[in-house]
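user: can you give me the structure for this one chain? tokens are fine.
assistant: on it. calling the predictor now.
[tool input]
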Amino acid sequence: MGQHLPLVGAGRPGAELTVGQDGATIRRSVLPGGVRVLTEQMPGLRSATVGAWVGVGSRDETDGHHGSTHFLEHLLFKGTSRRTALDIAEAFDAVGGEANAATGKEHTCYYARVLDEDLPMAVDVIGDMVTSARLDADELETERGVILEEIAMTEDDPGEVVHEQIAAAVLGTHPLGRPIGGTPDTIRAVPRDAVVEHYRWHYRPSTLVVAAAGGVDHDRLVAQVGDALVAGGWDLDPDGVPRDRRPGVPESDGVPTEGVELTVHRHVEQANVVVGTTGLSATDDRRFAMTVLNAVLGGGMSSRMFQEIREKRGLAYATYSFSQGHGGLGLFGLYAGCTPARVDEVTALMVAELEQLADGGITDAELERSVGQLSGGLVLGLEDSGSRMSRLGRSELVLGELMTLDESLARIRAVTADDVRELAADLASRPRSVVRVGPFGE
């Protein structure tokens, strides 16, 4: 089965933990300064994916800094003291590699996929970006326009709008309720000084996790990461320790105690509707029961929502349930896209399926089928180095532990029908919000 890895705070700087898993080897080291390096060596793979995870997301922004996290995702590609933006782009293009970044509500990741022989280059370039971003004033103003266009593109997608609005409706003024990319007003308002301050405060050794998977040698990567950070001018204090996972903000802080209803006008052919409520935090012990609940309720073509709303009644093309877990808080929702005239009917059907699950639970056949679906999806989802790299980074920054594949499968298989029914009853009892996006009022 392999060894279970407790991650956050485990070991002194330089300590290593190893675990064998389905032919791969996972190792973890804590460098001076608190930088964490995790690798998963996958035998026979000639490529590798490496990511620099910074433990800062949109929820960490303070007044006057809103939008800074997303701004930095763009600006780190715009040049350092050693490289221009073109140098960064050419470094990866020259070896057929891919580089990108993603901003989340709790972390930001800069990552690249390259041949194993080009991994030192990728580490050096990404390390340079993270430690030595120039944050040029002219480039910032250019990217301000680019980000505003990105937000406008999102606003033109009713599916994106309904999911952003349900988060705001359910979570209220809680930091997790804010859009990741900021709003047009916050992007226009944030000054360069605030972005620079956000960068200097949050981009530091104690918040950095470097994760790599594929054809990677752990000891070499540790040395390469250390060299890159020192070259970037970071002070790797031997007494530095990793920043622990955020403890999580109580759900009551800014979260409405009653559900709300919101209708957003968009001139589109199809309406999008989400029914949402607070869900489970990322570390809640019931998160495995939640995966089974989602599989039964709205996780595939055999799910109750899909069968009732699409297959039996033909009322929607797409319908599903979803769960998002964060530190101290989560979001749970039911989605459908349908003809505007059928929104109320489809909304009632989605709610009815959740309430029936809460009242009557699931059958043994549904439990068996969902466990098989989740087990197969978990294994298939770890077939590439990118997904394994992401699992390492998320485990370190969000979960605080790394389960082996066998352990994860065992936790899924341990879920009972009573676990699912009790969780469904809990979710069904919570304040419920509804957001509709479509040509209403025309």
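assistant: here you go. The domain at 261-438 is CATH 3.30.830.10 (Cytochrome Bc1 Complex; Chain A, domain 1). The chain is about 40% helix and 20% strand.
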